[in-house]
Amino acid sequence: MKRLIPLKKYSLYIIAGLMIMVTIILFFLVGIGQSSTEPSVLKENKETQVTLEKQENEGNEPSSIVVEVKGAVRKPGVYVFQSDARVEEAIKRAGGFTSKADTFEINQAAKLEDSMMIYVRKQGEADRQTQTATTDTSSRNEKSQGVNVNQADATELQTINGIGPAKAEAIIAYREEHGEFQQIEDLRNIPGFGDKTVERLKSQLTVK
């Protein structure tokens, strides 16, 4: 009986030792599995990050635009620029301003746009355009108001539909003899100008 007790005690130690060894082996195997998994995950994350950075860089790359520069520059023409270019670069590419260039209205800091046209006026060109526009406006206003029968000559009177050389001379003769017309209806006093004729001419004539 005394011998059985030590053997039973030793068997417990052996079993406990085996369990500890099994536990250590399990931990070791689990650690190897985790270490083999983590690098692949990190590799995938790095590849994804590199791909995203590449796409962002490609999206930020400036595209080309085409701009025409003309007017008072040394080398007028069509030029290609990057999308972030400015008007100043376009002027330089076109050889710069000529000595007669009017640079007052040119904003050289403005950003270029595709299909943009930069026109540099010559000195005094803006004033001439303004005068021409004013003259054209005055002419249109005069035409819209009608021909003044108190001031128009025979040629101008004949521009009115329904007034020929004979009627034009009759209007001038009446005006010289009786003075200025007070109203368009006074034309009825001239032979050849009936009520229907005067009514048709009213929209084309004026006495002012």
From TrEMBL:
Residues 155-174, 185-204 form the Helix-hairpin-helix DNA-binding motif class domain. The keyword Transmembrane helix applies. Keywords: Membrane, Transmembrane, Transmembrane helix. The chain crosses the membrane at residues 12-33. The keyword Iron-sulfur does not apply. Residues 123-149 are annotated as: Disordered. InterPro entries: Competence_ComEA_HhH (IPR004509), Endo/Exo/Phosphatase_dom_1 (IPR051675), Hlx-hairpin-Hlx_DNA-bd_motif (IPR003583), RuvA_2-like (IPR010994), Soluble_ligand-bd (IPR019554). Residues 129-138 have a biased composition (Low complexity). SMART domains: HhH1. This is Competence protein ComEA. It comes from Bacillus pumilus (Bacillus mesentericus). The lineage of its organism: Bacteria, Bacillati, Bacillota, Bacilli, Bacillales.
